[in-house]
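#onboarding

Welcome to the new folks! Below is a worked example of what a typical request in this channel looks like: someone posts a single protein sequence, and someone else replies with the predicted structure as tokens. Don't worry about understanding the tokens yet, we'll cover that in week two.

Example request:
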Amino acid sequence: MRRRFKKAGGDDAGVNMTPMLDIVFILLIFFIVTATFVRERGIDLVPPPPSEEPPVDPPPLILVQILENGTIFVNQQATDIARVGARIERFRSENPDSPVLIEPDPDAEHGIVVTVWDQANQVGARGVNIQPREQGEQGG
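Example response:
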């Protein structure tokens, strides 16, 4: 049997990790202490006090209905697609602050809806919104 002899000084040399862990904890504490935290502002949920003035009636709505077959109605009057802007402008001359509601049928062509939207914006209508018509509603 052969015996193996260890060489002198052949001890396992290990790295002492304690100083490195101390430095890591010191850096962690340093970054936590020096970090700036963003304070987000909340929304004020207190309602304004009630006004003494009587409520003002809103201006009448300009309703643009687009049916499945491409027929367009502006305030219950059949209108050609090229004349929608002029018709909206005529109603706005009587009530300049009237909002425009475009109510397309779910099966109406998107190109017609976009054209009506563009014409309403070109005549300067504010508050142009699109709300799809429910399936059971009748048009015209």
